[in-house]
């Protein structure tokens, strides 16, 4: 086993330990000391790679996202959005990871490095995929040519973050479906054809 | 000056002191000790009314909302929404209070009492007003009869919370206007009349 391989294994072990411990004690009580101790590495080893608990936990949580939350393209844009958003919600907005993702977003409110990491490593790539999927649909006439694609991520995921972070009510598939229907319908009274 | 009046004055003083100090040191470094000291009251006096810093700061921030963020009803629902949301954004999403409101929402991610207080004292009343204004517009045919009014608050304010809490980009009037236009347009390609 070469050095690069050993380092990758160690990274994996540290992130898995962070996830295990977070499930046991919650985000607030998670500590770099406890992670180092259980992972069998020195604290310095962790701090060399992750300057803070928030950044380590961000990486750990994103490492769960194996399928990279890609959008399918079956030709039915509403069905594809529904499927992708259900997967995102199942991963990050429901137990066991939902409460920990909420805590991480909470940390991003006073820790600019965590906020930047969250955007660079997760939000922006997801936003790019969302725009690409909607642009393909717009080209085929399945999305209104008037819809401002730049706002796609805010409009589609904003109501879900509102449910996750503000009302803190359960984020079910049914809720996602209702939001999507409302966003497709729009507020304007539709002229009768 | 009777006892009730004195108590109201003291409440006012404590909340004003919490706001002043928060502007000076930020939310993270705000302490009940420092507030008590500067307000010239005992810590017990504060804790009797507010069991935590988060709840005191929530009340203090909401006390700024003198105009209660009511919706005008000029007959033009889009203009009315725009005006009310601009006022909300000016109060809670831009400096000086924006960063402190962000911190408070951050606190609500690990403090259930703050989350409940935020919903009971601010979000739910605003949601009720939003639904009432949109229901009046729906009755007049200015909002699509298909639009699910129960989702109004999530759909209208979700994209703004996304900007405030996730991307943390400036929340300008222009951004609000673009979001409103996108929500009125909807994603569905509109049939030509």
TrEMBL record, chains A, B:
It comes from the Bacteria. Residues 31-50 bind DNA. The keyword DNA-binding applies. GO terms for molecular function: DNA-binding transcription factor activity; transcription cis-regulatory region binding. Keywords: DNA-binding, Transcription, Transcription regulation. InterPro entries: Homeodomain-like_sf (IPR009057), HTH-type_TetR-like_transc_reg (IPR050109), HTH_TetR (IPR001647), Tet_transcr_reg_TetR-rel_C_sf (IPR036271), TetR_C (IPR011075). Residues 8-68 form the HTH tetR-type domain. This is AcrR family transcriptional regulator. It comes from Nonomuraea thailandensis. The lineage of its organism: Bacteria, Bacillati, Actinomycetota, Actinomycetes, Streptosporangiales.
């Amino acid at each position: 086993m070469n050095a690069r391989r050993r380092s990758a294994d160690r990274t994996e072990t540290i992130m898995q330990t962070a996830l295990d411990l977070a499930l046991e004690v919650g985000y607030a009580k998670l500590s770099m000391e406890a992670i180092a101790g259980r992972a069998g590495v020195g604290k310095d080893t962790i701090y060399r790679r992750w300057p803070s608990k928030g950044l380590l936990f961000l990486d750990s949580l994103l490492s769960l996202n194996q399928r990279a939350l890609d959008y399918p393209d079956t030709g039915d844009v509403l069905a594809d959005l529904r499927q992708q958003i259900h997967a995102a919600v199942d991963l990050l907005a429901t137990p066991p990871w939902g409460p920990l993702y909420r805590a991480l977003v909470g940390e991003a409110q006073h820790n600019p490095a965590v906020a930047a990491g969250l955007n660079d490593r997760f939000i922006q790539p997801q936003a790019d995929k969302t725009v690409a999927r909607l642009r393909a649909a717009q080209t085929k006439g399945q999305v209104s040519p008037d819809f401002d694609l730049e706002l796609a991520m805010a409009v589609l995921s904003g109501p879900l973050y509102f449910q996750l972070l503000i009302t803190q009510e359960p984020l079910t598939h049914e809720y996602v479906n209702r939001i999507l229907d409302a966003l497709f319908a729009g507020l304007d009274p539709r002229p009768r054809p």
